[in-house]
Amino acid sequence: xxxxxxxxxxxxxxxxxxxxxxxxxxxxxxxxxxxxxxxxxxxxxxxxxxxxxxxxxxxxxxxxxxxxxxxxxxxxxxxxxxxxxxxxxxxxxxxxxxxxxxxxxxxxxxxxxxxxxxxxxxxxxxxxxxxxxxxxxxxxxxxxxxxxxxxxxxxxxxxxxxxxxxxxxxxxxxxxxxxxxxxxxxxxxxxxxxxxxxxxxxxxxxxxxxxxxxxxxxxxxxxxxxxxxxxxxxxxxxxxxxxxxxxxxxxxxxxxxxxxxxxxxxxxxxxxxxxxxxxxxxxxxxxxxxxxxxxxxxxxxxxxxxxxxxxxxxxxxxxxx
Amino acid sequence: xxxxxxxxxxxxxxxxxxxxxxxxxxxxxxxxxxxxxxxxxxxxxxxxxxxxxxxxxxxxxxxxxxxxxxxxxxxxxxxxxxxxxxxxxxxxxxxxxxxxxxxxxxxxxxxxxxxxxxxxxxxxxxxxxxxxxxxxxxxxxx
Lengths: 321, 142
Prior knowledge:
The complex is a heterodimer. By secondary structure, chain A is of the alpha/beta class. Chain A has a single domain (about 25-280), classed as Pyruvate Kinase, Chain: A, domain 1, CATH 3.40.1380.10. Helices cover about 55% and strands about 15% of the residues of chain A. Chain A contains 5 helices and 6 strands. In chain A, helix 1 (about 5-60) packs antiparallel against helix 5 (about 245-320) and helix 3 packs across helix 5. Chain A is elongated, with a radius of gyration of 28 Å. Chain B has 2 domains: about 5-85, ATP Synthase, domain 1; about 90-140. Chain B has helices at about 90-110, 115-140; strands spanning about 5-10, 15-30, 30-35, 40-55, 60-70, 75-80, 85. In chain B, strands 1-2-4-5-6 form a 5-stranded mixed β-barrel. In chain B, a hairpin with a 4-residue loop joins strand 1 (about 5-10) and strand 2. In chain B, helix 1 packs antiparallel against helix 2 (about 115-140). The chains are: A alpha/beta, B alpha+beta. The interface between A and B is medium-sized, with 26 and 23 residues. Chain B: Keywords: ATP synthesis, Cell membrane, CF(1), Hydrogen ion transport, Ion transport, Membrane, Transport. Chain B: Belongs to the ATPase epsilon chain family. Chain B: One of its GO terms (molecular function) is ATP binding. Chain B: Produces ATP from ADP in the presence of a proton gradient across the membrane.
């Protein structure tokens, strides 16, 4: 049986861990509150603007000539860019690993597509996504990521790079991977296509805007919502563009793409801090459990020591008698 | 034919308005347009200015916008604005101060770099839009 002083030391160190995790939980909670507020504020805008983009894409797909190069699906996909939005720091449970797993699955899928020469390049935000280099892929660019996003300016350089490389034909497809914030207890890793804008891709919506909090976590609800949107509602929009098509779309599409990317960043932020908060909470509970277990051992060891001492003393007195 | 249409005005910050309207006047880059129910589907770019929404009850809402986009659908109009404020929420004094500051910045930025100048004149346009929204609102109230 271990010495009581050893156990006592361990109890102390576990208690310290408990305190540290509690502090970290509180920090994460404060950041989460801000991040969640930010994500909920822009969600309506992001979803409505995405609807607009999809409506445009639908018209583009049905008309003879495509409306804008950003809406045109390339017949052969040679190079795909994947934007990964991860965190800078760990200690947030499966936040990064589940995202990276999802990315891996997704690139496997498109690499074994129609032709087997699809190249994948990564554009990463957040230090924890650097591991993709170890998988043997090219990292085309790395952008700095802040703990709590400050404004659309944070992703403008990334958005500009993506737009230019897509329009120049370097990339044929651009995907974004991030953790979607559904509730404080639930975050879902998601990989979605950003460019070209296609109407028949699933999983369009960023998060769920629902008044009923129960609905927010329901998968069917999300599926239903995107289905309802994607189903042909019978209207054919033949838009008029004022002043003219090129001018409107050149202004509008890049801006709305930026908004989508920014919303992904916000979703990721909110998810990260909620994930960290719940992980730290679990760590704290685990540390508490460990302390009570160790205390039990400590008492047992102490009692064993006392018993041994008494046995020695009584053995001694027996000798004397 | 339908007498009104669903209208949604959102900015990245919040949902400003979501209600039924009978008509909507917007400042687009080509000039002011008014949308009535049954308008042909349209996409256009907004410039800073005053937006006037006529509610079903016949009351007017005056809104200052600082640019964005409008999408007119069959039974729905969506405005994706950069910023938007209801004139009833705006404070004239504060705008005048902001406007004077923007004017000053514009003059000092004019002989510096172009980017700065563009930013500042956008700011000034925004404040002007707010001011005219408030003025229109005042006239309406009298």
